[in-house]
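Example (one chain per record):
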Amino acid sequence: MVDEATFVEQVQSNERTLYRTAYGIMRNNQDSLDAVQSALTKAWTHRHRTDPSIFRAWLLRIVINECYSMRRKMKWETLAEDVEQAAGQPPPDPSLRDALDRLPENLRLPILLHHLEGFSVQEIAGMLKTPSGTIKWRLSKARKLLKQDLTEKGVALHGGF
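Predicted structure:
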């Protein structure tokens, strides 16, 4: 059971993660904020039903579900914006951002959750309700596509991929 103080503390400490995850799906600043707000309202209502040890993953799962629900209702394409800039961080390399934007969503979301947010393969598998082997494959495929895309664009790669 999560009390009010723990809920507020956890939400505040995971604010950027929630937004970036929503943005990874919605691809629009305002829609991402709406999805997070709606997810937080739902999470607040059901906070007594979850174990504090899994709160972060539980909350992210609600955000992901809310994003998919909103997209089904809207049925539209959005313009890509800069996730880091919108989150108040310095913008990443534009070439990398563009390459990430070109990835299919099923590959982009695991990459963002794993490399940007630091979630393990098992945690991502739980959040996306996908086998961990599939998540590993998607991470590998996404890295390969990113490397190929960046190499074709003449971007020098440092370590990483």
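Caption: The radius of gyration is 16 Å.
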